[in-house]
Amino acid sequence: MTKERKDKLIDWLYLAMVILPYVICMVLKVLTTPGGEGISITGAHIYFEIPMPLMNLCITEVQATSVAVIISIFGLCLYMTHGIKVVPNTKRQLIAEWVVEKVNGLIKDNMGNRYMAFAPFIAAIMAISAFSSLSSLLGLFPPTSDMNIVAGWAILVFILITYYKLKGGLFPYVKGFFEPVPVFAPFNIIGEIATPVSMSFRHYGNVLSGVVISTLVASALNGLSQMLFSWLPGFLKDIPLLRVGLPAILSVYFDIFSGLMQAFIFAMLTMLYIATGFPEEEYEKRQAKKKKKKALPAA
Amino acid sequence: MQSLDIISVNIWNILLSLVNLLILFLILKRFLFKPVKKVMNERQAQVTAIYADAENDRQAAADMKQEYETRMATAREEADGLVRNAVQTAQRKSDAILADASQQAAHLKQKAENEIQLEKKQMLSDVKAEISDLAVSIASRIMEREVNAQDHAEFVDQFIQNVGEQQ
User: Fold this and answer.
1) How close A261 gets to chain B, by Cα (Å)?
2) Residue ranges of domains in chain B
3) Given a cut of 70, is residue A298 above it in pLDDT?
4) Which of B18, B24, B36 lies closest to A155 in CB terms?
5) In this prediction, what percent of chain A has a pLDDT beyond 70?
6) What local confidence, expressed as pLDDT, does residue A270 receive?
7) DSSP line for A38-65
């Protein structure tokens, strides 16, 4: 009996861990957004700055939301895997297993069995991207519409791609830039650098464009309803009635569909870039050579 | 309150988000994938064990069936052999009994025949004696005098001999 109660308490704690960070972020946002500013398109609000070499580290609402997203996902993981059993009897365990199996299947289909260790990483990319984009539904500034955030992920992916390319040896990697003819070297280098840039810009641009269009439509509807309903008595004329409806439909596309789509695309591209960038033949040749070298002194 | 520009690059923010993603990766690995995988592997092991048990049981059942069938076959053969033996023994015994019986019958018949022969001879000799007596009495009556049986024995014998030949 007491154990049951304890389990229930822990469940509630985890659920609070999922929800509370968002609530705190929303409260922070409401408290720090100056009233009567009207509709404007700006970046995230800066809470404070920490002096650092080169440039100051700005702690903005984006950083706060990112941390909230991470804590929330952490809480979700703990909640789903709490009281996990060999024979599942809870819905959340089924969901957790479904997620793990789906991600594993995705990796197996797109990358192959060699990369199964990537499953948590791909899941992390998908989760952080989707949760960040969806946080705009709560009125928060979506972290994915800040280029720095997405650029960070893209750079991490780029590091991984390069690491896997270098597994085939430094020389084949460098040689790859001078193919098919040495004249192509600058283009190849640009193409290489373009990978993280395009990844980050694609994702961030999609989400930000959604924010911009939503804001524009909202402001246009604001003006329209002021024009049409200025004859209404009292406070009624201050309510932008036309803003009811259409922004919600736009939100379904820009916040939910586009956000999830971009999360999926980002994860897919990560998988494909890493899997295709890995020079399998060179790697195996190198491993064989290493084995030979190891075997030589013994013989 | 200050805001960032809509497009701004800040390397520290980039680094921060990179680290954030790494942290989330570690969290997911440790707190989602590890327990779920552990449980799934355990389940897999259980299922494999159950299947192995079932296979073992099936194998044992098949073995038992095989053994039973072979035993049944040998038992049937044994029964057949027993029956055949019994039939053979009975046949032999009945043959022996029959042979015995026929032999005895033949023996009895022989004995009976012998006895008949003997009786016949006895009767013949009796008849001879009677006839001779009869003949003597008839002859004495005819001759009106006593015939000495002793004297005419030769004659009577001859007569009887003739009668016997005429018969």
Assistant:
1) 19
2) 11-166
3) no
4) B18
5) 97
6) 92
7) -S----PBEEEEE--SSS-EEEEHHHHH
Identity of residue B80:
D
Residues of chain A found within 8 Å of residue B25, distances taken between Cβ atoms:
120-121, 124
Spatial contact of A43 and B3, defined as CB atoms under 8 Å apart:
yes
Phi, psi of A83 (to 5 degrees): 70, 35
What is this model's ipTM? 0.88
In B, minimum Cα distance to A31 occurs at B1
Q: Which residues of B touch A45 (CB under 8 A)?
A: 1-4
Q: Which of A151, A132, A156 is nearest to A73 (CA)?
A: A132
pLDDT over threshold 80, residue B154: no
Q: How many other CB atoms are found less than 10 A from the CB of residue B105?
A: 10
Q: Answer for the pair A255, A219: CB distance below 8 angstroms, yes or no.
A: no
Residues A195-210: b if buried by 16+ CB within 10 A, e if exposed: bbeebbbbbbbbbbeb
A120 within 8 A of B36, measured Cβ to Cβ: no
> Helix or strand or coil: residue B7?
coil
Total H helices, total E strands in chain B: 3, 0
Q: Give the separation between CA A84 and CA A81, rounded to whole angstroms.
A: 5
pLDDT of residue A1: 66
Nearest to A73 among B15, B27, B40 (CB): B27
How far off is chain A from B50, nearest CA to CA, in Å? 14
On whether the CB atoms of residues B19 and A63 are closer than 8 A, the answer is no
Q: What is the mean pLDDT of chain A?
A: 87
Mean pLDDT of A244-262: 86
Name the band, by pLDDT with cuts 50, 70 and 90, for residue A221: confident
Rounded Cα distance between B18 and A261, Å, is 21
